[in-house]
Design brief:
The complex is a heterotrimer of chains A (462), B (99) and C (472). Chain A is an alpha/beta fold and 462 residues long. Chain A contains 14 helices and eleven strands. Chain A is globular and about 70 Å long. With 99 residues, chain B is mainly α. Chain B starts with a helix and ends in an 8-residue tail after the last strand. Chain C contains 15 helices and 16 strands. A nine-stranded mixed β-sheet of chain C has the order 2-6-7-10-1-11-12-13-14. A three-stranded antiparallel β-sheet of chain C has the order 5-4-15, with no helix packed on it. In chain C, strands 3-16 form a two-stranded antiparallel ribbon. Chain C is elongated and about 95 Å long. Chain C is of the alpha+beta class and 472 residues long. Classes of the chains: A alpha/beta (462), B mainly alpha (99), C alpha+beta (472). At the A-B interface, helix 8, helix 9, helix 10, helix 11 and helix 12 of A face helix 1, helix 2 and strand 2 of B.
Chain lengths: 462, 99, 472
């Protein structure tokens, strides 16, 4: 049996185990497709991702598996083309393992909004894995695949990475092609990666990054993301933005952050407090811009050219639209569409959408100033709390939105950011966030790698 | 109070989204809470002339004028919920009538 | 003047590109439905737009040709509305930062003479598909081949004061856009489409309520539709009624406008910058190069024909109406034909054929050969016109055709003398009258000799022989 065939068989076994455990982390996979992937790899040259099985969030389109975005409106939909990242993963030698569950159209922070059932936290089934890329995070945390692709719009990879205790990296906006990612908030969407280690996440990200002529928002001629190996953090200035360490921060999260800050100093970094005053407005800004873009992006799901269709009562086209969309979209998607339509509608656009664009600029300017002052990296908690219980925040959309309070600013500013495990509280993982200069993934990943090995050493000592 | 039942119905119509009458009050309450939450941006001091942020490239790269369609492994007929004689088929336009 | 009419026009033209505005599908007309489509123009999940450089270039050249300022930075925006032939549920257009603004056209108004009519803006956008309502009973059929075709929308100011002036504006605009090579501008094929806004007022009063008129498929129908709407509004106001803001459609068969069903929601397009497309930034040097390489526009060409080629104003105007005609004319001149002679040919035989077929059947060099045979006396003008008709069918040397058809002018004195003698013998009464002093009868004799020779006699050579015989 070839190495690829073995990987396909093992991956299939682990996927079956995860299903048997009731994680509900996948929306589609089959042993037959895994074997076909293996046959393809056997015929292909060795690449940087040879031997790596990768799960895909199910909002990344594939021709050989359905793409549902965890929505009924795409039930049974199979794309006639592959996303650019899928093509790149394959040519780098990766084995595509499965399509992972998510919040419907990536709208959510707990993966409770899937039309195909919620994803369970691999450590505590009563808790959420975070979201919206909860399926991808849970698969990597449960050891099913070594890496997974998710997508970020406002923290949808970093937040579940923190909850599940894995590494989650969001690149700079424009680094990875969005061609074939079902659009949610187009000015924010970034295909991002999960890995069990910084190294797995890094090599996966490097394989999918780069300019794509099919996505006009990707940047050509950008510096490499590849981390330069280093043994310590000497020469790096790490900023601690005070707005990200509020007095009511969860004590377990605070303790893990404090320990990490001590470690940063021990590793030779210069640590200094900085201010990002407009970050406090990131969540409300995000919840104007994102629904506005989402409402337009989801207009194409109209039951005319693809997907299921409902014939409305009146039998005319508007009845068809309203019935198809009314039945196809879940509660959170409907809320976002309505909010997004409202904030752009006549009489309100200036007060909401234009205002949010201006504040988004101020949030970005804060980062620019801090990085211009000599800071190389920012360190913050990824989330205000460890993984919360399922159902805890579903009744109050705004409380759910606030789960993204520390991750939304970097999304709005388009900056590279990542979460890595920095400790545990009551058995639940805690994530620490690094944010870097625009297109400086290299420094961020190198520092994360140093931090990761030191944290591992500490864990073993304890 | 910014969002009442009338706004919910109006916005739902703009978005071509069926909303059951029984859902309108709950949606109005939720939307009101969200809009009240995001309205805190009105307290932010915005310097005049602050343009919008541009993430990603700061200017467009254009495509050469070549006929080079992205290949599709499935045809429109295979994807469409209703397709006849080479056309996508929808009901009459009714309330949308106009050119 | 009791009522003043105020008209503004919105003109959409398809840009002459090989591929669509935001994807690599072919732009086509009349192909099998839903075959020139891809994930992008079908609006499939995950697809993204990438703009066509040539569409941008043509938009810029069109804007320059109509005197607009092209902005170094413009923004693509999403115009949101649902319609089954609009795949994404929004149209990519330009809104508050269009490609170009502030142009003007010098138009020959039927009522006011030369007037300058302002152009508010030119912006780029993508076309929608087609909805066919009579194809499948009880249903609407959607063809998305046209979806994503590049368009320029040109919006005029409310500057026109009559339906005839609106037509004159369209003629001038079309001429300029064809000159600049931007669009085919064929209303028949849908590559030029017109929507009009019209209101009436008492002179000096503020603008009245306007209505929008759509579905006019020729320039003549634009004029008819606007005339009908103008009269409808005036009649309404004079009977004490009020104009309401509606969209009307023109029925070419009845010549009437009628309101379309009004919508329950007024338009609320919720424009916002398209996050899939960074700002369109044009280099100053590139823009300058576009300006420098614009072809000579009709006004300049007309002036040159009058000043340099000494053509009468009428000839200059008609020759420059379409660039292909002017180009043909110039090719004939370059091939060595005197300008006025070339103009006569082009405005006569050549245009007749061109108007019928849309093509030039005779190459300019052939026409020049033919004209030279007239100039050196080998052919009479009627004979040359006969040969022109032959040239349309057979591309042979005109001299050979002349030989074959026996149309070469006879200048041989003995042959001419024989015909003259026959004519003098056949008309003794006329000869007597001529000799009695009726000098104008000479024309009659020349005509008879020509007839006798079946048009082959050289009229200039006939006269001396004729005079010699008659003087006897």
């Amino acid at each position: 049996m070839s190495d690829a065939a073995l990987l396909a068989r093992d991956t299939g076994r682990r996927l079956a185990d995860a299903d048997a455990r009731g994680l509900n982390a996948t929306l589609h996979w089959s042993q037959e497709l895994l074997d076909r992937e293996a046959a393809r790899l056997d015929a292909a040259p060795v690449g940087p991702l040879t031997g790596l099985a990768v799960a895909l969030k199910d909002n990344i389109v594939t021709t050989d598996q359905p793409t549902t975005c965890a929505s009924k409106i795409l039930e049974g939909y199979v794309s006639p083309y592959d996303a650019t990242v899928v093509t790149r993963l394959r040519s780098a030698g990766a084995l595509i393992a499965c399509k992972a569950n998510l919040d419907e159209f990536a709208m959510g922070s707990s993966t409770e909004n899937s039309a195909y059932g919620r994803v369970k936290h691999p450590i505590d089934p009563d808790r959420v894995p975070g979201g919206s890329s909860g399926g991808s995070a849970a698969l990597v945390a449960a050891g099913v695949t070594a890496a997974a692709l998710g997508s970020e719009t406002g923290g949808s990879v970093r937040q579940p990475a923190a909850f599940c205790g894995v590494v989650g990296v969001k690149p700079s906006y424009g680094r990875v092609s969005r061609f074939g990612l079902v659009a949610f908030g187009s000015s924010l969407d970034c295909i991002s990666v999960f890995g069990r280690t910084v190294a797995d996440a890094s090599r996966t990200l490097c394989a999918i990054g780069g300019h794509d002529p099919r996505d006009a928002t990707t940047r050509a001629g950008a510096p490499s993301m590849r981390p330069m190996p280093r043994s310590d953090l000497r020469g790096l200035v790490v900023g601690l933005p005070r707005e990200y360490f509020p007095t009511d921060l969860h004590p377990g999260v605070r303790a893990a952050c404090d320990a990490t800050i001590t470690l940063l100093r021990e590793l030779g970094a210069e640590v200094r407090e900085v201010a990002l005053p407009h970050s406090a407005f990131a969540v409300p800004t995000y919840y104007i811009i994102n629904p506005a873009e989402a409402a337009a992006n989801l207009a194409r799901f109209d039951g005319v050219r693809f997907g299921p269709r409902q014939i409305g009562q009146d039998g005319d086209i508007r009845a068809l639209y309203q019935a198809t969309r009314g039945a196809g979209f879940g509660a959170e998607v409907r809320r976002r569409i309505l909010v997004g339509t409202f904030v752009l509608s006549a009489g309100y656009a200036d007060q909401y959408y234009s205002r949010a664009q201006a504040v988004r600029r101020l949030i970005g300017d804060d980062f620019t100033q801090v990085f211009a002052s000599g800071v190389d990296l920012l360190f913050t908690p990824t989330t205000p709390t460890p993984a919360f219980k399922a159902g805890e925040k579903t009744a109050d959309p705004v409380q759910m939105y606030l789960a993204d309070i520390f991750v939304a600013p970097a999304s709005l500013a388009g900056l590279p950011a990542m979460s890595l495990p920095i400790g545990r509280d009551g058995g639940l993982p805690i994530g620490g966030q690094l944010i870097a200069r625009d297109f400086d993934e290299s420094t961020m990943l190198a520092a994360a790698s140093v931090l990761e090995s030191s944290l591992d050493a500490l864990q073993e000592v304890r | 109070m910014i969002i009442g039942a009338a706004e919910v119905r109006h916005v739902a119509r703009l978005a071509e989204l069926a909303v059951a009458e029984t859902d309108v009050p709950t949606l109005a309450t939720q939307l009101e809470a969200i809009v009240a939450f995001v309205a805190q941006l009105n307290d932010v001091e915005v310097p005049p002339g602050a343009g919008a942020i541009v993430v990603g490239p700061d200017r467009l790269t254009l495509r050469e004028d070549r006929v080079d369609p992205i290949p599709m492994s499935r045809t429109p007929a295979e994807m469409a919920p209703a397709f006849r004689d080479g056309f996508f088929v929808v009901p009459k336009l009714g309330g949308l009538a106009e050119g | 003047m009791l009522w003043e009419t105020v008209i503004g026009l919105e003109v959409h033209v398809q840009l002459k590109t090989r591929s669509k505005m935001f994807c690599g599908c072919a732009t086509s007309y009349g192909e099998t439905p839903n075959t020139n489509v891809c994930p992008v123009c079908l609006g499939l999940p995950g697809a993204l737009p990438v703009p066509n450089a040539e569409a941008i270039r043509l938009g810029v050249r069109g804007a320059l040709a109509i005197g607009c300022s092209v902005h170094p930075t413009s923004i693509f925006a999403r115009k949101n509305y649902f319609y089954p032939d609009l795949p994404k549920g929004y149209q990519i257009s330009q809104f508050d930062k269009p490609l170009a603004t502030g142009g003007a056209l010098l138009v020959d108004s039927p009522e006011r003479g030369a007037v300058s009519l302002s152009i508010t803006r030119l912006h780029l956008e993508e076309d929608a598909g087609k909805s066919l309502h009579d194809r499948i009973p009880g249903m609407t059929a959607i063809d998305l081949n046209r979806a994503g075709t590049p368009l320029a929308e040109i919006v005029s100011g409310p500057d026109m004061r009559s339906p005839g002036e609106a037509r004159a504006y369209l003629v001038t605009l079309r001429q300029l856009l064809i000159y600049a090579g931007v669009s085919e501008c064929s209303m028949e094929q849908g590559s030029l489409r017109v929507d009009a806004n019209l209101s009436v007022r008492r002179p000096g009063a503020p603008l009245g309520t306007k209505t929008e008129v759509k579905n006019m498929n020729s320039f003549a129908n634009v004029e008819r539709a606007l005339e009908s709407e103008r009269l409808r509004q005036i009649a309404l106001l004079e009977s004490g009624g009020q104009v309401t803001q509606v969209t009307l459609t023109f029925n070419a068969t009845t010549g009437e406008v009628k309101p379309l069903r009004s919508k329950e929601d007024s338009h609320d397009y919720r424009y916002f910058p398209d996050p899939d497309l960074p700002p369109l930034v044009l280099d100053a040097a590139w823009l300058e190069a576009q300006r420098a390489t614009l072809p000579e526009l009709p006004a300049a060409r007309r002036a040159r024909y009058e000043a340099v080629l000494a053509l009468p104003p009428y000839d200059a105007r008609v020759l420059t109406q379409e660039p292909v005609v002017a180009d043909y004319f110039e090719a004939v001149v370059v091939a060595g034909v005197e300008a006025k002679t070339a103009a006569n040919w082009v405005l006569g035989e050549v245009m007749t054929g061109f108007n019928d077929t849309g093509q030039f059947a005779v190459a300019p060099v052939r026409l020049a050969e033919l004209a030279r045979l007239v100039a050196d006396g080998t052919l009479s003008l009627p004979a040359a016109k006969k040969i022109f008709g032959e040239l349309i069918v057979h591309d042979d040397a005109p001299a050979e055709i002349a030989q074959r058809l026996g149309l070469v002018q006879v200048r041989d004195e003995s042959a001419l003398a024989r015909w003259v003698d026959d004519v003098v013998a056949a008309y003794p009464d006329e000869v007597a009258r001529f000799r009695g002093g009726e000098g104008k009868l000479v024309g009659f004799f020349v005509g008879q000799v020509m007839k006798k020779s079946q048009g082959k006699a050289d009229p200039k050579a006939i006269q001396p022989i004729l005079m010699q015989r008659l003087d006897r």
